[in-house]
Amino acid sequence: MEITELQSRYDCALLALVLWREARGESVEAKRAVAWVIRNRVLRPSWWGKTWSEVITKRWQFTSMTGRGDANLLKWPDERDTAWQACLEVAAAVQVGQGTDPTQGATHYFDRSLDATPPAWAGDAAMQHVTDIGAFHFYRQGS
Fold first, then answer.
1. Were both Cys, which of 79, 87, 98, 117 would link to 20 (CB 3.0–4.6 Å)?
2. Which residues are bridge partners to 126 per DSSP?
3. Where in the chain are the domains?
4. What is the 3-state secondary structure (H, E, C) of the chain?
């Protein structure tokens, strides 16, 4: 197996893991939307990184992967978990750009459970709310 194929498989597994940790209780549509946020960041390299692994593991971005105090940081899926299987399928499809982006180019999202105290970036005039899918609000940088 070539290095690029190994990297691609690693990236897909990492993407599936963040989907499982962040959206395992959500619909496939919501899982796909979270994956597209990550893909959109990879396609638009910036301070958040330029590769799948850099984007996913960037400090303070996906708290289930890097955040202190997030209980999901220590959780791992079981291979028989149907949510894990769905996350693997979504990750594989989104990684290669299969389907259309349900987030309309979003690069940010947050869970509705944070509505009372949303992240500071959500109030930034440069951020545009584009859609809600499942338990998530999706945003992109306005033009």
1. 87
2. none
3. 3-141
4. CCHHHHHHHHHHHHHHHHHHHHHCCCCHHHHHHHHHHHHHHHHCCECCECCHHHHHHCCCCCHHHHCCCCHHHHCCCCCCCHHHHHHHHHHHHHHCCCCCCCCCCCCEEEEHHHCCCCCHHHHCCCEEEEEEECCEEEEEECC
Cβ-proximal residues to 80 (8 Å cutoff; 6+ apart), any chain: none
- Which of 134, 140, 121, 127 is closest to 33 using CA atoms? 134
Q: Per-residue b/e over 16-52, b at no fewer than 16 CB within 10 Å?
A: bbbbbbbbbebeeebbbbbbbbbbbbbeeeeebbeeb
- For residues 71 and 60, give the distance between their C-alpha atoms in angstroms, rounded to a whole number: 14
Are 107 and 81 in contact, with CB atoms under 8 Å apart?
no
pTM: 0.91
